[in-house]
Amino acid sequence: MSLPQLSAVTELFKPITWFPPMWAFACGVVASGVPMDGKWLLALIGVALAGPFVCATSQAVNDWFDRHVDAINEPQRPIPSGRMPGRWGLYIAVIWTLVSLAVASLLGPWGFGAAVLGLLLAWAYSAPPLRLKENGWWGNAACGISYEGIAWTTGAAVMAGGQMPEPRSLWLALLYSVGTHGIMTLNDFKAVAGDRAMGVRSLPVQLGEQRAARVACWFMVLPQLLVILLLFAWGQAGRALAVAVLLAVQVLMMDYFLTRVSQRALWYSGFGVPFFVAGMMVSAFALRALVQAGA
Length: 295
What we know:
Elements: H1 6-13, H2 19-31, H3 40-65, H4 67-73, H5 78-81, H6 88-104, H7 108-126, H8 136-159, H9 167-186, H10 192-198, H11 203-207, H12 209-233, H13 237-257, H14 261-271, H15 273-292
Helix pairs in contact: 2-3, 2-8, 2-15, 3-6, 3-7, 3-8, 4-10, 6-7, 7-8, 8-9, 9-12, 9-15, 12-13, 12-15, 13-14, 13-15
C-alpha cells in the first residue's frame, strides 16, 4: 500500500482551522486570572492540544466520512483526489485520536477529560451512526461547544490547578459557544449543492440560503449583546464598550454580507469573524481583571 505524502497529510489536518480552539483555550487561560509564572509550558501544551491535536483529528475524521460529499463539492481535497490513498484517511484519524489522548494526559484529569469529550464530539459530528453534521442545528452546536466552550473551560480549569472555573468564566464560554453556531453556518454555504445531493441537512439546505444567513447573524449577534450586558453588570464598562464597538463593526459587515449571501459567506468568515474572536479576548481580560482584583 502506498503511503500518503506529507503535504497531503498536512492538508488533511487543515491548519487554518486550528486557530479557533487554540484562541479559545488562550482566552480561558487569560480569564482564569492565574499568573503565568511557572505555567507557560502547561499553557502551551494545552494550546497545542486544542489545535494541532484535537482539532486536527476532527478535520481528518470529517474528511474521511465526507469523502463522497467532497467528491462533488471539493474534489481537489486529499481523499477524493486520490492523494490520500486507500484507507489512510481513516488510519490517520484513528492514530491522531490516540496521540491526542496521550498529549492530553499531560494536563491532568481536567485536560484529559476535556480531550475525551472533544474527540467524542469530533467523531459523533462526522461518523455514523450519529453523524451530527447531517443536521445543521446539532452539528453546528457540537462544533461551537468543542471549538469554544470546551477549549475555554479547559484553559481556565488547567491554569487553576484542575478546579472548576468560576461561573462568570463558564457564562462567557457558553455565550461564545452559541455565537460560534452562527460562524459554523457560514462554512456551509460553499457546499450547498453537494449537501443537497447527499442528504446533509445543513441550515442553508433546510432554511434556504437567505434565511440561513440571517439565522447565522442572529446567532453571532445575540450572545455578544449578552456579553456586553454582563461586562457592564460586572463593572467592566470600558471593555464592554470595546466589545460593543467590535460588534457594531460586525453588524455593518453583516449588512453587506446579507445582500449577496452565497458569494460573500467566505468573505465574512475571513474579515468579519476576527472581530468576534477579538471580543472574546477582550472579555477574557475583563474577567482576569475582576479575578485579580478579588471582585
